[in-house]
Amino acid sequence: MMNKVTKSDKTRHLIIEKAAELFNQKGYHGTSMSDIMEATGLTKGGIYGNFKKDGKDKKGVKDEIAIAAFEHAVKKVTYQVGERTRVIDNTIDKLKTVVYFYKERVLNPPVEGGCPIQNTSIEADDNNPILKKNVTNALKHWQDRILYTIQKGKERGEIREEVDGDEFAIQFIGIIEGGIMISRIFNEVEPFNKMADLLLSLIEDLKK
Fold first, then answer.
1. How far is CA 155 from each of CA 38, 69, 82, 100, 128, rounded to the nearest angstrom?
2. Helices assigned H by DSSP within the chain
């Protein structure tokens, strides 16, 4: 039996969805509760009522929204990438498809403002250890997905046994994130395309 979606659930989802765009564009420190109120059309009480628990103060509520918003943004990107890759069988083609996805979306990202991992990591310093932990976990999860893909490719005889999965995963993430950063700074796709060509070459070299 499916759980019924309540009005409270819908309101909380609206807050998270709108906050995800705000935090991704303006950053944690640049986003105020007033911004979230304006974006959602809710009162302060409407927002606090969905997030204020255990006597949290204003900062505690903002932190909770920021964490939920970050997780929502990452899941949104992950879902869209997954939609593209799950229909592809070959490991090499699957990895290349991820690169093509970002080539298409580098200036039109799934979440307005760019890559949520990259944007949040800039502010997720030691002054916000919980947010930093979430960014670290997201990066680790991405790395683990790449490692899993590499391992499956080896088992299927599509990737060379001597390929260092950890090394490749770091290279993959670093090139994608670096390309996104440079392209968004210049507001041009060409910098990312050049980085993408390098990554596609590295992927091709994985072939057995």
1. 52, 37, 21, 25, 41
2. 7-26, 33-40, 44-51, 58-85, 91-105, 116-123, 129-155, 165-186, 190-204
Task: Tell me how long the chain is.
Answer: 208
What's the one-letter identity of residue 156?
A: R
Q: Give dist(CA 123, CA 104) in Å, integer.
A: 27
- pTM, whole model, 2 decimals? 0.90
Q: Which amino acid is at 106?
A: V
pLDDT digits (tens, 9 = 90+) for 87-111: 999 999 999 999 999 999 999 999 9
pLDDT digits (tens, 9 = 90+) for 37-57: 999 999 988 898 888 665 556
Do residues 136 and 125 lie in contact, with contact meaning Cβ atoms separated by under 8 Å? no
